[in-house]
Write a structure and sequence with these properties.
The structure holds two protein chains of two kinds. Chain A is mainly α. Chain A is built from eight helices and no strands. The longest helix of chain A has 33 residues. The chains are: A mainly alpha, B alpha/beta. Chains A and B meet through α1 and α6 of A and α6 of B.
Chain lengths: 216, 293
């Protein structure tokens, strides 16, 4: 199996990827408010729509990611989540205007308009980003005994990423860059994470102390 | 000397405490709203704990009087279009301006946009803002209403943008795209009047954004007010002479409101006094709240 827990490089890359995943989720969520305000305003229900859809997408992502992790868990599938998240985020750049115009024309109430838009733009990419969390736990856990510890570490890292993603986006990125530029940055972060996981699992595992002990 | 100063300060403290009566408090989804009355002057405050910002005030002994300078200054838009028939006002506050325009132009249709139902309630219950056949308040985000008005082909000949609380700036109401949408619902003779900030880096950004969309505009400032009022039009702006003539006609009707319109024309200049290298604000780039600090 490729996912040998003793590949420490791969382990570190997985932890870093979980961090970036958490970061990117909140960056995209915060930009959602900015992207949607020209069509639906900045009323409290626009944020309500965005947060609802993000929570729903993440919850289903956790469920499906967890289920997938019980069948042949491997880093390639994990890397695929990042690739798919990145590809599915592209419509936010290219089709958001068109989507919002159509929704605006057909739904008068901005509450339901913003809810539908948030679903169309964010449901799929955020679902895949949600799948990252349980799957990364499965890849890193080698024994029942330290499963809680690993899950704790991954929650810590990805939520810390989310905190930093929120801070950097709202305090600095919107001042330094345009919204689409920030979105490209988020997509690049996802692609780099996916590529790094693929590379890390291709590098042959060196004999670590643990292996050595086991063999002797 | 010291004692008299102390006495003076004590008197101040006590008089404030005695007469600053809070008539009403209301918590909405967006803010805390307070209505206070001091010495016959009733004021609407948002988030009174932080910095006591008066949104609008009303002299209960002379209810017509427009107390704030910036609110008087917005009447300068009438020098450009002296007889508006379709008026759009984004931002209700205490309803001072819509009520005055409704009285001045009883046949004009007035749509008032206010995001917060609680503000509409308070304006009605405490500031005499009464809707009628011609004046209607809509609880809606201004951008949403204006975008839809554009799609439906509705037009206005007097559009006032006054949706800023001072604490938080709605960033999507400052961008080039928004102003293009405003321009789309403006009749060829119509005027846009915007109450904006005159301090901070935002001043330059906002000025450049208006210029990008409307070209040259009147940059209207008066002593005693920290605000700047932008008055813009699609066709070329009137000259001083034309505005003086318009001011003569408006002088009498506006006098009960405390608006000395004769003073306005000479202060309405098109000369830029901002940093013209500032970037235009767009839907892609509008960190207004960060620039406004």
């Amino acid at each position: 199996m490729t996912a040998t827990p003793r590949n420490t490089l791969l382990q570190n890359v997985i932890v870093a990827a979980a961090f970036i995943n958490g970061f990117v989720i909140m960056t995209i969520e915060l930009l959602g408010g900015r992207i949607m305000s020209p069509y639906f305003g900045s009323s409290v229900y626009v944020w309500g729509s965005i947060i609802t859809i993000f929570m729903l997408s993440l919850s289903l992502g956790y469920l499906w990611g967890g289920r997938l992790s019980s069948r042949n868990p491997n880093p390639r599938t994990f890397a695929l989540f990042f690739l798919l998240s990145a590809i599915l985020s592209l419509p936010i750049i290219f089709f958001a205007e068109w989507t919002m115009t159509q929704v605006f024309l057909s739904i008068e109430d901005p509450r339901y308009g913003s809810l539908l838009t948030a679903t169309l733009l964010y449901f799929l990419p955020i679902c895949f980003m949600g799948m990252v969390s349980p799957y990364s736990v499965r890849l890193l856990v080698s024994s029942e005994e330290h499963s809680g510890r690993m899950a704790g570490l991954l929650y810590f890292v990805s939520t810390l990423g989310s905190a930093l993603g929120t801070l950097m986006t709202s305090f600095y990125f919107v001042l330094w860059f345009e919204i689409d530029q920030i979105m490209w940055g988020a997509i690049a972060g996802l692609l780099i994470s996916g590529a790094a996981i693929m590379i890390a699992c291709k590098i042959p595992v060196r004999e670590s102390a643990g292996v050595h002990r086991y063999e002797s | 000397m010291k004692a008299s100063l102390m006495l003076f300060l004590l008197t101040l403290v006590f008089s404030a405490g005695l007469y600053a009566e809070t008539l009403h408090e209301e918590r909405s989804l967006y803010r805390n709203i307070f209505v206070t009355e001091v010495d016959g002057r009733r004021c609407l405050l948002f988030n009174a704990v932080r910095g006591e910002r008066n949104q609008t005030c009303k002299n209960m002994r002379d209810p017509k009087e427009i107390i704030f300078h910036y609110a008087r200054m917005t009447m300068g838009g009438l020098l450009v279009n002296p007889n508006p028939q379709n008026i759009l006002i984004a931002g209700l506050g205490g309803g001072t301006i819509p009520v005055a325009l409704n009285e001045l132009f009883p046949t004009a249709k007035i749509d008032v946009l206010e995001i917060d139902q609680a503000v509409v309630n308070v304006a009605r219950d405490f500031f005499g803002f009464v809707e009628n056949d011609n004046m209607v308040a809509h609880v809606v985000d201004a951008r949403v209403f204006i975008k839809r008005a554009g799609l439906e082909g509705r037009k206005y000949d007097f559009i006032m943008l006054d949706a800023f609380t001072g604490e938080y700036i709605p960033e999507h109401l400052l961008t080039q795209e928004f102003l293009e949408e405003v321009k789309q619902i403006l009749t060829p003779d119509g005027v846009v009047v915007a109450n904006t900030f005159s301090t901070s880096a935002l001043y330059g950004h906002e000025s450049e954004t208006y210029r990008e969309v409307f070209g040259e505009f009147f940059n209207f400032k008066m002593a005693g007010s920290g605000n700047r009022v932008i008055i813009a039009q699609q066709k070329p702006l009137p000259n001083q002479g034309e505005m003086r003539i318009a001011a003569q006609a408006l002088h009498e009707p506006l006098r009960p409101y405390g608006v000395d319109i004769l003073e306005f024309p000479s202060r309405m200049t098109t000369r830029p006094d901002w940093d013209e290298t500032r970037r235009v604000l767009t839907d892609q780039f509008s960190p207004a709240n960060l620039l406004g600090q």
